[in-house]
Structures are given as C-alpha cells and as structure tokens.
Amino acid sequence: MAPIASNRRNVAPADDLYLILLITATVILLIGIVFMAVRSYQYFESLWPVGGV
Known about the structure:
single chain; mainly alpha
C-alpha cells in the first residue's frame, strides 16, 4: 500500500503565544503588587495598616 501524499505543512504549536501571554500577565501582576505596596506605604507609613483602629 502506497503512502498517502499530504499537502499539509507542519505548523509549530502556539506555545510561544501562551508563553508571551504568561510573561505579560506575570509582569502586570508584579507591577500591581509593587504599586499597592508603594501606595500602602504612602498612606499608612507601613506595608500593613495599623490593626485595631
């Protein structure tokens, strides 16, 4: 039995796209954490607000 000819090209998986999206989400999350830490320090002069007030 002869092999069937295929005109389809081998396409690389979209792993690169998902890696870029993962890196982008991680960077945005880290920027948000730093922003919240800076704003908390500006408001409370500490990373955590004073409890019991």
